[in-house]
Design brief:
By secondary structure, the protein is of the alpha/beta class. α4 packs parallel to α7. The radius of gyration is 18 Å and the shape is elongated.
Length: 220
């Protein structure tokens, strides 16, 4: 979804992310090898996020809350869902607007509007790192995400290739009898998922129409 707001994803250009190799900016090894480069990379991405705005897809999902209990589970690390008005957003892969202590991962700080440096320290005196789940790291929010998915009556998959695990496994966790939608211009058929409607359009085009349809169905 963020790509439609001008935020590039790492899959846009064959493994490059804003002209950087993934292994150089988005792995624990990269951080250990060159924290200055990694810190600057995420500073640049945070600046890009702040200059971007929610698109029609983000706004449509926020509007869905007028009649539904909506939980957003996203792989995106920007805050566009929150800025669009969505109330319950779970970031599987972390958040650009935050950093955390390398000594205690529970010490998380907002860094909106300012730049980290490789010398930025937490209150314990340890270096601050981006609050991002890098390739090769565990995804700590997966269990809560699975629990939400397993309780869903309607499950919408948006703008993903379903190639990045473990996030891609959520599609198979939704209840068999729930309504499911897969919104992506390049969506593949998923024969193993029941009650699935595939919408091969960009989210900014498809979601306003889908949300209108779901709101008209609701009796709440």
């Amino acid at each position: 979804m963020s790509a439609e707001s001008g935020i590039r994803t790492f899959r846009d250009s064959g493994g490059l992310w804003e002209e950087y190799e993934i292994k150089d900016v988005a792995t624990p090894e990269a951080w250990a090898r060159n924290p200055e480069l990694v810190t600057q990379f995420y500073n640049q991405r945070r600046k890009q996020m702040m200059e971007s705005s929610p698109n029609e897809g983000h706004l449509a999902l926020a509007r869905l809350e007028t009649k539904y209990d909506v939980s957003i589970i996203t792989q995106n690390v920007d805050d566009l869902h929150e800025r669009a008005g969505s109330s319950h957003v779970m970031h599987l892969h972390g958040e650009l607007s935050k950093c955390r202590s390398t000594a205690d991962p529970n010490l998380v700080y907002d860094v909106y509007g300012w730049e980290l440096t490789a010398e930025s320290k937490c209150e314990l005196g340890s270096r601050l790192r981006p609050h991002i789940v890098w390739f090769g790291e565990e995804v700590p929010m997966m269990i809560p995400a699975i629990q939400i998915t397993m309780l869903s009556d309607i499950f919408i998959i948006i703008g993903t290739s379903l190639e990045v695990y473990p996030a891609a496994s959520l599609a198979s966790r939704a209840p068999t009898d729930s309504l499911k939608y897969y919104v992506d211009p390049n969506a593949n058929s998923l024969s193993n998922i029941n009650h699935l409607t595939i919408v091969r359009e960009k989210s900014g085009i498809a979601l306003p129409k889908l949300v209108d349809e779901l709101l008209s169905m609701s009796t709440g």
